[in-house]
Design a protein that fits this description.
- The chain has a domain of 48 residues.
- The chain is elongated and about 60 Å long.
- The mean pLDDT is 85.
- The protein is mainly alpha-helical.
- The protein contains five helices and no strands.
Length: 114
């Protein structure tokens, strides 16, 4: 395990590319909690983490998730009407309707219907 996180460097390349630079970046931005060199210690660290995670009661895990999600869900619900209005204005717009008509025409053409 490492000490405090430094300021994040810019991503060197996709995070899916395994390299020390990518691992350091993922750790610096908080995407991962630990970085270990390859080998037996990786498996041991993963097993230790999995054992600790499995020991957390399901109800506690659910309560934490709900605690994190509730403010966002409430904000989304509070703005539901505004979001719907924006969607309807957008979907009724001339450019969108033109693209929908072209898409439907292409589907008809493929199916051989007139």
């Amino acid at each position: 395990m490492r000490g405090p996180r430094p300021p994040p460097p810019p991503p060197p390349r996709p995070l899916t590319t395994p390299s020390p630079a990518v691992q350091d970046h993922a750790w610096a931005i908080g995407l991962v909690d630990e970085v270990h060199p390859e080998g037996d210690k990786v498996k041991e660290a993963a097993q230790t983490w999995a054992t600790k995670a499995a020991a957390i009661p399901t109800e506690a895990r659910a309560a934490v998730k709900l605690g994190y999600r509730t403010p966002l869900l409430e904000a989304l619900k509070a703005d539901r009407e505004n979001d719907l209005d924006k969607f309807l204005v957008t979907i009724k717009g001339e450019a969108v309707q033109k693209n929908i008509a072209a898409y439907l025409a292409a589907l008809k053409a493929r199916s051989g219907k007139k």
